Amino acid sequence: MPETILQKLTVASSTTGEAKSEAGPLIEDIYGQTMSAAYVGSFVILSPEISGHVLDSSGLPVRFVTLHPDGGLLPAVTDSHGSYALEVPPSWTGTITPSKGSALLVPSSRSYTNVTSDLTNQDFVLVKPAALTLSTQQQGDQLVLSWNGLAGVSYQLFWSSDMLNWVAYGASPLSGNNGPMSVSVSTGDQPAKFFRFLMTY
User: Fold this and answer.
1) How far is CA 54 from CA 57, 82, 105, in A?
2) For position 2, what pLDDT does the model report?
């Protein structure tokens, strides 16, 4: 049985949009017969889309947040539902950074590598100043630290006696929720302590 030989195959396309492929005409079938004419076909290359929502710490949508992608791509702006969608070139690698005036958004950016298909649920949370306020209350030899948490955010408490050297307090970070959170720390006869949180999303 004759060996099949691929003589010509070309593909012409831009990064996205309509593309054309051409095969032949000098391609033999298993019986040794060549194609009578080249085969020409067309197809469409669609850009991957990155989409999600921007919500506040109460779970309400935030409109007019601008999502800035790297690489000179056009930004997107959230609608009245807090939704956004960004088209990126196939195999795109880059970072998307949200902004709305001086507001703090969590995470501050999202990074991507080799995007080849649609990505959904790429959400951000707009943090109100109240969520960053830490209050304290002394209860006996316990100091109660309270704050408004954010769902999806982890909080690691650190303490220091000199505000230079910080040590993690507790075995593991605390998982946030959209509501009041607190943690109690022992003061006893130890030197004065300072506390701060590391927030990760």
Assistant:
1) 10, 5, 9
2) 41
